[in-house]
Amino acid sequence: MFQTLRRMMSPQDTLRIRCGACGREAAWLCGEAIARLGPDATPMDVRRRLRCGACGAAGQARISI
Ligand SMILES: [Zn+2]
């Protein structure tokens, strides 16, 4: 079974996203991450959908909570 944002995150958690290409980092609070990505997004969805705001690389995001 795949993990989803709703299962992985508690309300006080922060989703950290790091670009594997340029190293830019972003951090979203649980509510913000779910609002942007949807509660049923899997880590694979997040990687596929995010594009780096700095270098434009897609599919390079590393995520951690
Ligand atoms: Zn980047």
Give me the Rg, rounded.
11 Å
Query: How many strand segments?
Result: 3
The number of domains: 1
Query: What can be said about the biggest beta sheet?
Result: 3 strands, antiparallel
Distinct helical segment count:
3
Please give the alpha-carbon distance between the first and last residues.
Answer: 19 Å
- Overall pLDDT metric: 94
> What does the overall shape look like?
globular
Helicity range: 25-40%
Strand content: 15-25%
Chemical compounds bound to the protein: zinc ion
Query: Strand pairing plus helix content: what structural class?
Result: alpha+beta
- Low-pLDDT sequence parts: none
Report the order of strands and helices: HEEHHE
Strand order of the largest sheet: 2-1-3
Question: Secondary-structure map with pairings?
Answer:
Layout: H1 5-8, E1 14-19, E2 25-29, H2 30-37, H3 43-49, E3 61-64
Antiparallel strand pairs: 1-2, 1-3
Zinc ion binds at residues 19, 21-22, 24, 52, 54-55, 57.
